[in-house]
Amino acid sequence: QVQLVESGGGLVQAGGSLRLSCAASGSIFSINAMGWYRRAPGKQRGLVARITSGGSTNYADSVKGRFTISRDNAKNTVYLQMNSLKPEDTAVYYCNADINSQTGWGSNYWGQGTQVTVSS
Fold first, then answer.
1. What is the separation, in whole angstroms, between the first and last Cα of the chain?
2. For the chain, what is the mean pLDDT?
3. Which of 95, 94, 98, 92 has the alpha carbon at shortest distance from 117?
4. Residue 52 CA to chain centroid, in angstroms?
5. Assign residue 63 a region: left if phi > 0, alpha if psi is -120 to 50, beta otherwise?
6. Of 78, 71, 84, nearest to 114 (Cα)?
7. What is the 3-state secondary structure (H, E, C) of the chain?
8. Which whole number is the average pLDDT over 40-56?
9. How many whole angstroms separate alpha carbon 96 and alpha carbon 10?
10. Contact (CB, 8 A) for 1 and 25
């Protein structure tokens, strides 16, 4: 059974930083793209950042220059370093990954979400 477990959310003042982590576990052969999405109150879930297995990245325009996505393939873990946080970054952040495992090839998985709250 493949699982994604996020950590690192919390409450921070505007201008502060947080680092989110997401570790994949289970009978994993390899992981393709990994990413972070977020759902703010009253809004739909949207892409924050995504990274391929080769390290190519893309970001939502609203976080470019402030957030950095990275991954440690040996640990099956993806990170999101968030700097210069703004109140509008407040949301539940979800980890997402395309995983090749005993369960299936290229199956898409979601984490349970972690709350990030930025106070003004």
1. 40
2. 97
3. 92
4. 13
5. alpha
6. 78
7. CCEEEEECCEEEECCCCEEEEEEEECCEEEEEEEEEEEECCCCCCEEEEEECCCCCEEECHHHCCCEEEEEEHHHCEEEEEECCCCHHHCEEEEEEEEEEECCCCCEEEECCCEEEEEEC
8. 96
9. 19
10. no
Residue count (the chain)? 120
- Alpha-carbon distance of 16 to 8, in angstroms, equals 14
Q: Which two tokens stand for residue 6?
A: 């996020």
pLDDT score at 104: 86
Amino acid letter, residue 21: S
- The C-alpha torsion from 32 through 39 and 18 to 75, rounded to 10°, is -20
pLDDT at 103 over 90: no
